[in-house]
Amino acid sequence: DGRRYMRAPGARVTVFAHRGAPTLAPENTLPSDEAARRSGADWIENDVQPSRDGVPHIMHDETVDRTTDGHGRIRDLTSAQLAGLDAGKWFRPEFSGTRVMTLRGQLADLRSRGGRLLLEIKNPQTREEIARIVDEVRHSGMSDRVFVQSFDRESLRITRDLAPDLPLGLLGDEPEADPVAVARELRLTSYNPSYYLITTHPDLVRRMHEAGVAVFAWTPDNPHDWSKLNEAGVDGIITNRSADLVAWNRQH
Ligand code: G3P
Ligand code: CA
Fold it and tell me: Where are the domains of the chain?
């Protein structure tokens, strides 16, 4: 049920820190998540994908090329190879030595430092791969602080099947003919559309709320867009600039 994630009238929007704080530190790494935590964000959004040996790692792209000093598809590299990469130097020299996080490391950090995790199952993943993610979440004891999202419906169905307790959000970047029917079929807690779907579909938030589904929109980074989403009644905003959105929230 998405009602517990909906905002009460007059309450501020929930702040989701997209890939941590990617304007301050290398995205999807410990320093980025730490900066997001310090910014006062309610949730940290990170992406998860398996290495060749099936270990869930935190990374957005299908290849390691943009965000590390290595080359190739994350799926083709072992966890030992990934552990040897530098995931910070590309961003700024002072972040040299930053490592690619495993999901296990991410969850351990969450447990010791606090915070909640919006975990995106990136790209369609197999049942076995999703089982590994779910196991990591369970063993970490962090199940009540993790929310799973994906663009891939089958990945969400598998997650629901393996972990009925985890809240699920469907990411959307195309209009849905019947978003309420989709939400019912997938038993969604939230629908997480691209910002433009909210501005082009004025009744979308109301329809989802009536169906008991929360709405989190991504990834506007400026006050003009935050105002529009706020007025549209979204429950949460997934942003690259969580520190600014937290400050903006205090004034609105
Ligand atoms: O959380 C929404 C957003 O993360 C989806 O797009 O490509 O940044 O993972 P992407
Ligand atoms: Ca993401």
Answer: 2-61+103-251
Q: How far is the CA of 31 from the centre of ligand 2 (A)?
A: 17
pTM for this model (two decimals) = 0.98
- CA-wise closest residue to 101 among 89, 113, 121, 87: 87
Distance CA 116, CA 102 (A): 16
Q: What is the ipTM of this complex?
A: 0.98
Cα radius of gyration rounded to whole Å, the chain: 17
- Domain 2-61+103-251 belongs in CATH node 3.40.1790.10: no
Give pLDDT tens digits for 86-129.
999 999 999 999 999 999 999 999 999 999 999 999 999 999 99
> Which of 15, 16, 18 is the best mutation target for the ligand 1 pocket, counting ligand atoms within 8 Å of the beta carbon and taking the most?
18
18 alpha carbon – ligand 1 mean position (Å): 7
